[in-house]
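sorry for the late reply, my laptop died twice this morning and i had to redo everyting from scratch. anyway the thing you sent over, i finally got around to it. pasting the sequence first so we're on the same page, its 172 residues, then the predicted structure underneath. double check i copied it right bc i was rushing
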Amino acid sequence: MGMDVYGMNPTAEVGEHFQRTVWCWYPLWAMCEDLFPELAGKVEHGYANLADGLFAVDSEALADALEEAVADGRIEVWITDRNEAVAALPMEECVICDSTGIRTDDIGRGAGQHDKALSPEQAIVLGREFGWCNGCDGMGWKAPFASWYGVTVDDALEWTGFLRACGGFAIC
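ok and here's the structure:
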């Protein structure tokens, strides 16, 4: 699933359309909310495809704010802080295998995961030779869901370029 953001009155091609997967859009918009709440707060549904957005003046102001924040390093600091916070989160239990590392439901049994032979490396780490789960690679736990999301300074720069030329936007 992705987030398509359309320019309402673009002045250049870059302002016609901005697209990101939800995996990037969510932290990008969270960054805007955290760093520029007076502007991002005007968007009630920033995480949904409900055609919410900003008009031209506020889009331009958000572009200015982002550009300044990239230049003074606030964007990089926000990304680093977010990544460190996500890295510090505990691993999550695997709900697919009930944290056993072996998938035994109908789907898992049908796919042969319950008696799948493990590689020698996996067997050493897991302490068994058979049984696997596709949800956690046989570990019984997995990285936190928040780790699936990510954003870069380049994403912020591209978003800034869109905002500067979109003439207002709608998240669809």
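The chain has two domains: 2-87+148-171, 92-143.
thats about all i looked at so far, will dig more tmrw
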